[in-house]
Amino acid sequence: MTEPKKSRLPHFLVGASWGLWKELRRRYGTVDSQFRKRAAVIRLGIWSQIPERIWESWRFRRVIEQTELHPSPVFIIGHWQSGHSLMHDLMANDPQFATTSLLHCALPSAWVTVEPFARWIVRRRGQRTRYVDAMPMSADGPQGDDLAMANLTDLSIYHGYSFPRAYEAIFRRAVMFEGASAEEVLAWKKCYRWLLQKVAWSTGRSRLLSRNAAHTGRVRQLLELFPKAKFIHLHRNPYRVFAAQETKWRSLCGLWALQTPNIEQLIADTIRLYPVLMQQFLANRSLIPTGQLAEIRYEELLADPLSTLRRVYAELDLPGFETLEERLAAPGKSQLWQLAGHDVTLTPEQIGLVQREWGFAFEALGYPVDPTLMTEPAATTVDD
Q: Residue 25 falls within a domain, yes or no?
């Protein structure tokens, strides 16, 4: 497999604070020599934004803290490589929702102040699709909000892509909150609520739409924050999830690693941690009140996006499907999504590994164990 292209955009941690940058290196290890230039760009970006962050906090802190949030945000969850980006891109066309954009996530503490310059950078140096899965990407396009949290707190899975030697420790602490104190979890909740308030204030929309695979392990904490929250759990054939891992790790580490990654070890970590995440979600699923959870197969979303969205809106009692349908049918909105690596072949050893380590998921999620039945429909336009 060829190595991915390097991003022309700066590392996402340029939007962090100096204190967080120091804490990450203290907790997760030093930067390897081959990535010193990348680390130098991070330091330069952090220092250059200090005045803007101070000004923005002073100018807008009170109005952000006073911003009211809709009591029923919508969280798109499920294990990574299960179709969250497609669902997010479709639902973000609904004007009732506010959602984090690439700009919000890259510069959560300063986007209001530096927006014109940031947009200029993205126009000049940004790519139009994501390296991981070829999904559309732009400054205003919907982005998973754990990226924003990576610039605000050390409890974000994105730090595992920058410090891959500590990936399992980061996963357990940031996603499962293992080893995190009650005070640290409370601080994470306050920080996350502040982020959602800032997005709501900035967009003028109070109902948040979040895409965050890491939230699959945080259902209990999200319900403590928002008892009326709605959840969309996207899941995919476990064979397909496994097959996507090498592309994911080579792409993400090519973009963001500050330590030399061991791709084989990272895939092994994922094999070991998939049951940790999914079994906790299955155990906590009963915490979600009736009418607040929709479970969707990625295969259904690919085959018939509009019918799947119609079912999601009905099951969650969300208003406004007709408006979303009209927007998706508007000129220029119809798109063809094709995730990278659609055609996959697994070796007998890989098939045996998935069956042995992830066997519970086939029954729990309703997929056949027979690997010859892991076919997925071709991507379709939303107006087909």
A: yes
